[in-house]
Amino acid sequence: MDEKAYDQVASLFKERLEDELAGKKPQEETEIESRAYDEFKQQYLPKHLSFYEKICQFSEKTLPMKPQEKDVPKLQEAINTCHLNTSPTGIYSSSFVIPLGIVLFAIVFFFMLPVLFGGFPNMFFIIFSLLVAVGLMIPLQKLPFILANRWRLKASNQMVLAIFYMVTYMRHTSNIENAINFAAEHLAPPLSLDLRKVMWDVETQTYDSMKNSLDAYLLRWKDYNMEFVESIHLIQSSLMESSNDRRLNSLDKALTVILDETFEKMLHYAHGLKGPLTTLNMLGVVLPILTLVILPLVVSFMDGFRWYHLFAIYNIALPALVYSLGMSILTTRPGGSGQEDITKKNPELKKYQNVVVTVGQKEQYIKPIYLSLALAIFLLFIGFLPLLWSAVGFPDYGIVKDSGRVRIMDIETAKADGWTVQYYFLGYRERDATGELVGPFGLGAMLLSLMIPLGIGYSTGLYYKYRTQHIVKVREQAKKLELEFSGALFQLGNRIGDGIPAEAAFGRVAQLMPDTVSGKFFNLVHVNVTNLGMSVEQAIFDKDKGALKYYPSDLIESSMKVLVESSKKGPLVASQALINVSEYLKQMHRVDERLKDLLGDVISGMKSQVLFLTPVISGIVVGITSMITKILGTLGDKVNSLGSAAGTAGAGGGVLQLFGVGIPSYHFQIVVGLYVVQLSYILTVIANGIENGPDRIGEETSLGMQMTKSILIYTGISFAVILIFNLVATTILTNVSGL
Predict the structure, then answer these.
(1) Greatest distance between any 2 Cα atoms in the chain
(2) 243-278 pLDDT tens trace
(3) Across 70-133, where does the E strand assignment appear?
(4) Residue 434 — φ and ψ, nearest 5°?
(5) Measured between alpha carbons, how far is 495 from 442 in angstroms, rounded to an integer?
(6) Is there a contact between 299 and 305 (Cβ–Cβ < 8 Å)?
(7) Cβ atoms within 10 Å, residue 74
(8) Is residue 334 part of a domain?
(9) Chain-centre distance of CA 632, in angstroms?
(10) Is residue 99 a contact partner of residue 140, using CB atoms and an 8 Å limit?
(11) What is the predicted pLDDT for the residue at 43?
């Protein structure tokens, strides 16, 4: 370097040093860092959080409102935990802007538009929207804490694996930076994002060392997951040990600490679940369904009660209450060793989230949303057919009887000819106060209405089933391999320790385990080495022919990477590394099984609730309601005809005024059916969250199984009970009225 260039560089660094000593930071550097970090977040941050950021930023510009000073540090901590690009002011402002938007929406659609078109404003929905808006203000202010708790829950579920990856790497290479990077590579978000942020802060000189960056990050977990903090400190302390044996003992202790503490926390969590789940069951399932039994009698004496009032309570307010209670239960769940989303680690597997159709020798992929929408539209058309029939103006039909003869006839013609109508297809009734036609109440319309919850519930379940049926098979195969893998790794480690090269050791172990998944995996590696001339690393990790392509598992991938890295230090190091990984896998599997035993009773109870109790009880309630509605409606018509025949509004008119038209059985069944669909969805999500923690594939698989079965049971029970109780009602009315 010539003297002139040297002076320029020296001058540049001198200016930089003076600025830093003066506390200045170049504006250009800040922009570069922020732009790069934005790109970093866009790659890993969930999309719904980005949408929430935009709402908060818009709210802060539109209606800026600052929170109390004492709440600012807590809000900022929650924002930092979720990596949100907003401020406490934006969070607080959104808690007013969003409710205000709901109120304005309700005023426009339920007041202004009806008045403009000559109708009457619906004050119920305006008041209901106002109550919802007021009720949302506090939850919206607490939303960052809820998001932070969910982030911590997802991250906590990955912490056992994170410690496993770090300890596994540190055993053969004592380098904390590489160990954190190794863990981040094999973990999915959010913990991988946190670990990458730890490294990012060192690279951008936010902290001058990995230790300081890691210590700052661990402060966030001090009050939430102390065992993770202790395990990381043990891993850090292994770097300071004077002997190799003490270093390895410190690493082993790190994994033991987090496994033991995780089990103990889950034990307390399982014991504490009984009370919250009983509250959830009573408020969300038992009391609402029992209320439905007496509801038809009550609303028959409340002529102002409409079906959309019932819809607002049962399909908006109650599901929101049940969901919030369920999420509060999940937020207290301690971390475990949850399942990873293999489609995030292996994007090629996303094609199997479609319906696979083989045409000739080629596989065609159809998105399940198209099939589900087609089925839903078909079933919904059948379900809404009574309303369409009435809107078009077609005549009502029914089953009529006269002198022992039974026929299906036009209702008007049948009444004119003196036939007795036993069952209506539509069965509209007239509201006395306004002369408004209300309905349909008929048996045919009610049976067809079952297609509406069936169309929504079954098509939703089918969508999730088709999305995950192939992915689950791949993951289950990988799980089987993981269960066997500890023993297989032990054998592989022993063979390498005996001096057999890794290339030949895979074939030896495969011969000893011919009918197992592990044996097939090792044999595939052996075939790639011997027939294709690949190295061990290529035989395992090659994108096209590698064995991991057919067994997508982070545990297996990390174990094989340990083998490849440790092999560079000699066969004895590789042998010992595999044997240690084998022991770690056994420990993790042992704790996993104990956790499942703890939660077994709770999960089985919730599944029986979804699959049997809720749909069966709801189906019986719908049948009873159809009977009560038919009896009350027919009695009202008889009292009305008696009063008209007497030409007075005396006793007959007084009795008649006790009976309102009530809620049409058609609408009543739709509300109850949709409530069953919503409960099935919510309870399945909660049960899966309790059992597995955040596990998208497991959740969608459970939804595909539970929702389809639950709605089919509800539809079948309702169909049978409606028919039976309508026959009973007809018999009672025939005996009472002497028809």
Answers:
(1) 122
(2) 888 998 998 899 888 888 888 888 888 888 878 888
(3) none
(4) -115, -10
(5) 77
(6) yes
(7) 14
(8) yes
(9) 42
(10) yes
(11) 54
Query: Which residue in 173, 738, 662, 104 sits closest to 431, CA to CA?
Result: 662
Rounded CA separation 207/178 (Å): 17
Query: Is residue 295 classed as helix, strand or coil in its secondary structure?
Result: helix
Q: Is residue 18 pLDDT above 60, yes or no?
A: no
Range of the domain at 87: 45-153
CA 221 to chain centre: 25
Gap between the Cα atoms of 502 and 524, Å rounded:
14
Cα dihedral across residues 125, 131, 136, 137: positive or negative: positive
Total structural domains within the chain: 5
DSSP H or E segment with residue 408: strand 405-410
How far apart are alpha carbons 222 and 233 in whole angstroms? 12
Mean pLDDT across 574-582? 79
Element (H or E) spanning 488, and its range? helix 451-497
Q: How confident is the model at residue 382 (pLDDT cuts 50, 70, 90)?
A: very high
C-alpha to C-alpha distance for 168 and 176, rounded to whole angstroms:
12
Q: Is residue 532 part of a domain?
A: yes
Q: Give φ, ψ of 408 to 5 degrees.
A: -105, 120
Q: Which tokens hold the place of 46? A: 């969930």
If asked whether residues 214 and 327 sit together in one domain, one would say: no
Please report how many Cα atoms fall inside a 13 Å half-sphere around the Cα of residue 729, on the Cβ side. 23
Q: Both 586 and 599 in a single domain?
A: no
Task: Tell whether the model's pLDDT for residue 674 goes beyond 90.
Answer: yes
Q: Which of 717, 704, 718 is nearest to 457 (CA)?
A: 704
Other beta carbons within 10 angstroms of residue 565's beta carbon come to 18
Among 561, 590, 619, give the residue marking a domain's end: 590
Do 714 and 633 have their domain in common?
yes
Give Cα 148 distance to the centre of its chain.
17
Cα(8)–Cα(2) distance, integer angstroms: 10
Give the domain-ending residue among 544, 575, 590. Answer: 590
At residue 33 the predicted structure's pLDDT band, cuts being 50, 70 and 90, is very low
b/e sequence 79-112, b meaning 16+ C-beta within 10 Å: bebbbbbbbbbbbbbbbbbbbeeeeeebeeebbe
721 within 8 A of 641, measured Cβ to Cβ? no
Task: List the structure tokens of 174.
Answer: 């004592």
Cα-based distances in Å from 69 to 72, 161, 737: 5, 39, 73
- Mean pLDDT of the region 176-192: 84
DSSP 172-211: HS--HHHHHHHHHHHSPTTHHHHHHHHHHHHHTTSSSSHH
For the entire predicted model, the pTM comes to 0.78
Beta carbons of 268 and 332 less than 8 angstroms apart: no
DSSP-assigned beta bridge partners for residue 408: 399
CA separation for the pair 215, 207 (Å, rounded): 10
Does 282 share its domain with 327?
yes
Position 149 in a domain: yes
- Give the Cα separation of 587 and 668 in Å (integer): 53
Beta bridge partners of 490: none
- Pairing type for strands 420-424 and 397-402 reads antiparallel
- H or E element that contains 216: helix 210-218
Q: Is 123 in the same domain as 249?
A: no
